[in-house]
Amino acid sequence: MGATNPASVDGRRVVVVDGLRTPFTKAGTDLRDVTALELAAGVVTELLQRSGLEPARVDRVVYGTVIHDVKAPNIARELVLTCDLPESVDAYSVTRACATSTQAFVSGAQAILLGDAEIVITGGAESMSKIPVLYSERFVEALMEANSAKDLPSKVKAFSALRPKDLAPQPPAIAERSTGETMGESAEKMARMNGISREEQDEFALRSHQKAVEAWEKGIYDDEVMHFHVPPAFEITAARDNIPRPDTSLEKLAALRPVFDRRYGTITAGNSSPLTDGASALLVMEEKTAERLGYEPLAYLRSWGFAALDPNWQLLMGPFFATPIALDRAGLTLDDLDLVDIHEAFAAQVLSNLRAFASAEWAQRHLGRDEPLGEIPDEKLNIYGGSISLGHPFAATGARQILTMARELARRDRGKALITQCAAGGLGAAVVLER
Ligand SMILES: CC(C)(COP(=O)(O)OP(=O)(O)OC[C@H]1O[C@@H](n2cnc3c(N)ncnc32)[C@H](O)[C@@H]1OP(=O)(O)O)[C@@H](O)C(=O)NCCC(=O)NCCS
């Protein structure tokens, strides 16, 4: 720890020049037939067109998914080969659970700071409608045996020991490999440990929807969200996020039954982020390159920080640990920030983190500091909604947050914004942007 990440290396600085996302739609709805790669290709193609950048100028694509397509594991390279980028554009994929596109952005920025690239496209995509479904180990072994069998009887014999249960498909679970706990169970545990009530969670979820609905009404997302025409027929167009609910209320939220602990739990479909399809992308440049090409930066990268904690404990406390790293490196405090965008995996997780940010005890016990990190007032927090109301296509969320914050800083023509996520494995990510 203690490492610095100067916002400028040898005079080079990193700027967010542009960005775009698809609408975020509930899994199984408008984008259900589209793969993560198709979502990614759609958003990057349109980003390039809108920005007017000559595709050959792109040095690198850094992109990611959380649930990988086994037929296209390096989605970044497949993306180059699918959209309007020349084959000569280098590409690699990253994965960091819900902080995947934050990692993509930081990796792109690091290359720019080192002088290894001048123009990078970064982002992430997820299709929760088209998830790879696995077979049992016994079935896979039988397939392998049959594959190497020399004749038909041997091929048939390979399958003879299989039981019906071996044939059952196994969809991936949103569970920690190391603990077996689902995200929802971890959030329940955090709600209990931090004394977060059901009412507080529902109030937070309601605010999230109100802010997202208002943002759409105010046109905040009009230039940030493309219209996605669904291939191959292009008859269906996803034009807006379909998760924000103008008609939700505390009464409706209170009526929902807990999902992860049906008897004593507080976490419901209403105060959780829903399973979502979508993709996002950022156009990131070295400052002088942007200037030379006539692009006005939306925002500058000021610092970043990553942290990791024991998944057996409070899995989703990443923002509390990653934020002070990014703030210290930037020489800032929480009070210096004009905007804070925290990924909303669950209302209970955001509220647990906010409570820890404000707690002297947490600061002392877990960070060795005398003072708490501070309070984040509602008017600075997730001002245009968050993952509960906008949805959460895992790998696309970080870039969605960075894009919205960069555009808001540009709109205000001043200020500093923190973007932070918790992520599976007990990871945390934080980025500070400024204008
Ligand atoms: C929580 C979860 C299991 C709910 O899934 P689901 O049951 O398919 O959710 P639905 O959208 O069908 O919602 C269930 C019900 O709640 C209602 N509901 C959901 N949000 C609501 C809201 N804000 N206001 C009012 N009603 C709401 C729905 O209308 C639906 O009602 P219905 O059964 O009458 O149609 C799922 O979203 C999930 O697994 N989320 C967590 C994902 C996760 O772990 N992510 C990782 C975090 S980083």
What does this structure look like?
The structure is a single chain. The chain has 435 residues and is α+β, with helices and mostly antiparallel strands. It has a domain at 8-131 and 273-434: Peroxisomal Thiolase, Chain A, domain 1 (3-Layer(aba) Sandwich), CATH 3.40.47. The chain is built from 14 helices and 13 strands. It is globular and about 75 Å long. The two termini are 27 Å apart. The model has no long low-confidence stretch (mean pLDDT 95). The protein binds coenzyme A (COA). Residues 98, 174, 183-184, 205, 209, 245, 248, 252-253, 256, 259, 269-270, 272-275, 345 line the site of coenzyme A.
Question: In brief, what are we looking at here?
Answer:
By secondary structure, the protein is an alpha+beta fold. It has 14 helices and 13 strands. The protein has helices spanning 36-51, 75-82, 100-113, 137-148, 152-158, 183-193, 198-218, 250-255, 287-293, 318-330, 347-358, 360-367, 387-390, 397-412; strands at 8-9, 12-21, 25-26, 60-64, 90-94, 119-126, 228-229, 237-238, 276-286, 299-308, 339-342, 416-423, 427-434.
Write out key terms for the chains shown:
435 residues, alpha+beta, Peroxisomal Thiolase, Chain A, domain 1, eleven-stranded mixed sheet, two-stranded antiparallel sheet, globular, binds coenzyme A
